[in-house]
Amino acid sequence: MENPNLKKAGLKATLPRIKILQILEENPLRHMSAEDVYKVLLGTGEDVGLATVYRVLTQFETGGLVSRHHFEGGQSVFEINQGEHHDHILCVGCGKVDEFVDEIIEQRQRAIAKKAGYVMTDHSLYIYGMCGECQKKKM
Amino acid sequence: MENPNLKKAGLKATLPRIKILQILEENPLRHMSAEDVYKVLLGTGEDVGLATVYRVLTQFETGGLVSRHHFEGGQSVFEINQGEHHDHILCVGCGKVDEFVDEIIEQRQRAIAKKAGYVMTDHSLYIYGMCGECQKKKM
DNA sequence: GATGCTAATGATAATCTTTTGCATTCGTGT
DNA sequence: ACACGAATGCAAAAGATTATCATTAGCATC
Prior knowledge:
2 copies of one chain form a homodimer.
Chain A lengths: L3 H5 L6 H12 L5 E2 H10 L6 H13 L3 E4 L7 E4 L6 E5 L5 E4 L2 H13 L3 E12 L1 H7 L1
Parallel strand pairs in A: 4-6
Antiparallel strand pairs in A: 1-3, 2-3, 4-5
The first copy, chain A, binds a DNA duplex through α2 and α4.
């Protein structure tokens, strides 16, 4: 019984997939790039190719196991889906990522999409700013 | 009197910059990738390199003349800054981009940032969905 | 208007992230 | 244990963007 989530997503329970899912579940850094995941894999002595990491993460996204985010800075970051939907606030100073939920914003988005004649499928909201610690450092 | 905006941004009035600014101002497609701009330039017989397009767009962004967006799909798109701030709603079917302004969302964002101890510097909100025409096509 | 200094440009190579092709290996049902 | 197709690793390719560097073009000055 490796991980029931893999079967739920219709994916064969292969070693790379099991390991990657485990990393996403257990790593304290909740937002990881493919490269991040790959480095952890290497660190634990696993022989998994970077291409496989990309492939598996994309499959996980398709299967609804993870979300892909396009934070500023070029590369995609992945986050395991657990708990409810949330948006992100990022520190432009130190790169810290916080999460928040705001039902009013969610509502407004749905209303806006409807008014514009769209059926909303997804949305992404990132707030960028300077966190408390970084504000102090700059002074 | 080529274009007062260039001087305002502290940029020398060179031919590539004048041309690129003109394209961004006049092209009906308000959201253009560097490649898009480059193609228009080639079409008008201008001899401007793609690297210059990237450089100039980045300078325009720094100077506040344009905004850079990271829509899904890998490449950055640029939009000239005119009129007030707005967010975007994109059709996942045809790629159409609509704009909207919602003061309630703006307020909530500021409140969320403050509560989290951040000084907000920027934010990006994209709603993805299926537009009216694309909904019909799929049926 | 010619001159000279500096910043800007164009072409190309380099970088970085992500994807693809293909021979080999692994999971899974039998 | 076996066989079949799916999944993997490697290396090469692709796509977007940036860096390098010799050459050229703005612009202030004469």
